[in-house]
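Changelog-adjacent note: as of this version, every example in the card shows the full chain rather than a window. The one below runs 305 residues end to end.
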Amino acid sequence: MNRVHNDNFAARLDAAAHKVATLLATLLSQSPLEGETVRPKHLILAMRHGVLNGGKRLRPFLVLETARLLDGPEDAALRVAAALECIHCYSLIHDDLPAMDDDDLRRGQPTVHIAFDEATAILAGDALLTLAFDILSSPGTELPDRAKLALINQLARASGVGGMVGGQALDLHAERVTPDEAGIVRLQAMKTGALLRYACAAGAIAGGADAEALARMTRFGEIIGLAFQLADDLLDVTSDAATLGKAAGKDAGRGKATLVSLHGIDAARCRLDGLVEEAALMLEPFGARAATLTEAAGFIASRDR
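Full-length structure tokens:
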């Protein structure tokens, strides 16, 4: 499959990232909201360090593009996208801690616990987690109450014990007890895939999707979640820290089993091609309007960092 991305796709990805970062900067201001007493300056600075440090903002992009595909309200979708990015960034802050992946770099910059300290990094992650649900439940997110409740409930499940956090727990356990292939797929679908799945489902909910469209977009999110993790595992083997903006070769160093370590680089790349094609099939009923999301699947599979 051709994975050459045109200038229009790159521009849309950059524009979405800029919009989300601008909103996040506003949401992470020093000024307390109604019901808050004060926002400690050092905590806000740590949160901003962990959120406003670049990145492709892929998950928010998927929310926005899925909502656009279904003619959803852009302003509301942007707030949903920002809420999801808060969850993602909190997970990265906690992932980087010494007790977890113990990383000093994230997106080429010092991780939050290095730039500040471990306790502040933990609290910054905690605060971003709760901010996500503040954003979704706020009157400023102008969606029907039923849609907002669905978004809140699904985000809680995607990010919690049966989703991302549960996947992280399984991943840590896998350093001691090597899982079989089914176990690897399961933990990756939870740790990485759950938020990508949510991104597409959330965009559909914000767009007022019917049951069929919601199911199709949710499945699309599952497929690209698998592709994202497989591409990530390939990068861990084939890239370097300067390109990735974080440490490379850590899976092998920890003896962690991945689909790449089980089947090899060539087989993993072949599987990745298959996932991209499967993702495109999910979007066929939407026709040319889904071209950007189709290209997003290829982008996920061919990214270099």
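Structural remarks: The chain has one domain: 7-302.
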